[in-house]
Specification:
Blueprint: E1 2-8, E2 15-18, E3 26-29, H1 36-41, E4 47-52, E5 58-64
């Protein structure tokens, strides 16, 4: 299972996406919605996405059951 954390940056310029599943451990997003990346790249794995506010409180959790589907397969 992949676990992702989305935390606002201390400099208030975007958000950090943090996970052991990422090649460098952390990505920076300038747009407020960093949830799209882990949803897309975990489509064949189970994933949990946790969103935190600036104070470090958990405000949102998204759970995704990996369902890799091949288009056109019978």
């Amino acid at each position: 299972m992949h676990v992702y954390e989305i935390r606002p940056r201390k400099d208030k310029c975007g958000a950090d996406l943090i996970s052991d599943a990422l090649p460098f451990g952390r990505l920076w997003y300038s747009e407020p919605n960093a949830i799209g990346y882990p949803k897309f790249f975990s489509r064949s794995h189970d994933a949990v996405i946790r969103v935190y506010d600036a104070a470090g409180n958990l405000i949102e959790t998204h759970e995704h059951a990996g369902e890799f589907k091949v288009c056109g397969a019978a």
